[in-house]
Design brief:
By secondary structure, the chain is of the alpha/beta class. The chain folds into 2 domains: 2-101, no CATH class; 116-250, no CATH class. It contains 10 helices and 4 strands; from the N terminus they run ααααααβαβαββαα. It has helices at residues 2-26, 29-51, 59-72, 78-81, 87-101, 113-123, 138-147, 167-171, 232-236, 239-250, and strands at 131-136, 154-160, 188-193, 218-222. A 4-stranded parallel β-sheet has the order 1-2-3-4, sandwiched between helices. β2 (154-160), α8 (167-171) and β3 (188-193) form a beta-alpha-beta unit. α2 (29-51) packs antiparallel against α3 (59-72), α3 packs across α5 and α6 (113-123) crosses α7 (138-147). The chain is globular, with a radius of gyration of 19 Å. The protein starts with a helix and ends with a helix.
Amino acid sequence: MREQQALLLPFVRELTEELFHQARDRGDARTLRVIEDARQQLSGAADEVAASPQTQGIGEPVRLLASVLTTLLQIPGLRRAAQWASGQSLLGHLGQVGRYLGRGETDGEGRPLDVRVRERVLRCADPGRPLVVVAHSLGTVVAFEALHHHPGPVALLVTLGSPLATAAAVRQRVRPRPAHTPEPVERWLNFWDRDDIVVCRPRLAPWMLPNGSGVVPVTDRVDSDGIWVHTATKYLRQPAVAGPVVEALKR
């Protein structure tokens, strides 16, 4: 849990700052007031994390981070589009990324959780046939790392609602480093929704090096209406997303 906490704080901080810059660029004074409130709470959460020794409980820092996210969900328009009723539920979702990238939770054979997850994913892949991989949210992090170990071709990789570009929280923890497109990938399309709070930094290409074939992720924005914009089904309803997947499957 300490590993999850170490990831959650920079993730929430980076999310807050990205929302701040977006609101400032739009001249959105109302949103800036909400974010400033979250910033002050975040400063307190950082102090609690630093002061919390490993031998003691971590309930208070987690509670403070949940409060920060609850505040951010008050941003005009975001609560309507967000699938999380509170910061606590959103924090639980982000904690899944922390569990994976924490590289802990070993089994009886000493294999950490992330290794076991990748092994299970790769067992489903036939190296003798070109793959079309559609990955969502935390799955984009798993797919990115797993495909570096896949021996067969990947005709298309589609990532949806990906947190991969979140620097301190994810980008600096994924493997291999420096990050580059997995060698088997022949085409990579990355999609993000304007109201998807998990995707605080949507553009992957500026920091993702190409593979040997020169492939880098191409990012496009989609605009969904209504609630639950982070779900995979919401993304897949978009023609810009579904179209390339269907075409790749026909080949």
